[in-house]
Write a structure and sequence with these properties.
single chain, alpha+beta, Phosphorylase Kinase, domain 1, seven-stranded antiparallel sheet, 9 helices, 7 strands, 47% helix, Anti-sigma factor
């Protein structure tokens, strides 16, 4: 009997290590004869590992006291706000076991970066002092970097060949002029950019790569106007290093999986260009 063709679902099951053993050999034979597909899956596997490094620490967060108290009283009717808080924490603990990598890539930014702020914006969710807060700039940027930089086929929405269109589109959506810095003298060329959801509105992401294929991303937001801390800062989010700063109405974050000194060199050049 002729074997059935390998489907996209089979490939994602292989990436997620949930493919039945009876199909594993067929998928591996398929990948051996389709190097482009093998490269794509390797990028997904790297993305999966990086996402886990970023978010696995959430699994160690303690259960809020209010939920523990409710659990001790099974007949208590759970108020809507407590139910929502429990749902947020449950989502943190089950996201990797319930979702495939494709769903993570499509929904992670909205669910993690924008989900909480959506409730805040509509006045329907009042978090306790110790729980959900606005996602910090370096974490937003690191998540966006991890989700999109490994993508082989479509890492950006608009490529560098249409840079004028990209600039016009992102400037219109952010409501202010934005333009990617030129990093060719440092060995990094623009790949392109995309529009992403932030805490309370749209943000822009520009992506670059060097001759070895190493990618870095510049995350640009206008959501930090109330933040008066204008210093040049460094953060490490899992496998991603981030330099970030506030300049007027803009917040910038440069992210990459390269060492701190190299990223600092690039971040300083970006800062100097944006200042002028």
């Amino acid at each position: 009997m002729k074997p059935l063709p390998i489907s996209e679902s089979d490939l994602h099951a292989y990436v997620d290590n949930v493919l039945p053993e009876s199909l594993r050999a067929e998928v591996e034979d398929y990948l051996a004869s389709h190097p482009d597909e093998a490269e794509r899956l390797q990028a997904y596997q790297a993305q999966n590992l990086a996402l886990k490094e970023l978010f696995n620490p959430m699994l160690d967060e303690p259960i809020p006291d209010n939920l523990l108290a409710l659990a001790a009283k099974p007949e208590t009717v759970i108020p809507q706000e407590d139910f929502l808080r429990g749902a947020v924490n449950a989502q943190k603990r089950s996201i990797f076991s319930r979702w495939s990598l494709e769903r993570i890539a499509a929904g992670l930014l909205i669910a993690v970066v924008s989900g909480v702020s959506g409730w805040l914006a509509h006045g329907q969710y009042q978090p306790p002092v110790r729980s959900a807060q606005v996602v910090p700039l370096p974490r937003q940027a690191a998540v966006a970097h991890v989700v999109f930089s490994p993508d082989v086929r479509r890492p950006v929405e608009v490529r560098a060949e249409q840079e004028d269109q990209l600039v016009t589109w992102l400037s219109k959506r952010l409501g202010t002029p934005v333009r990617p810095p030129k990093l060719g003298t440092l060995g990094y060329e623009l790949i392109g950019g995309r529009l992403l959801p932030g805490n309370s509105g749209p943000v822009a992401q520009f992506m670059y790569h060097d001759s070895s294929g190493q990618r870095l991303t510049l995350y640009v937001t206008t959501e930090n106007t109330a933040n008066q801390d204008t210093g040049f800062r460094f953060a490490q989010e899992g496998p991603v290093n981030v330099f970030y700063w506030i300049d007027g109405k803009f917040g910038y974050a440069l992210s990459a999986g390269i060492d701190k000194s190299e990223l600092s060199r690039v971040a300083t050049a970006v800062y100097d260009q944006l200042e002028h």
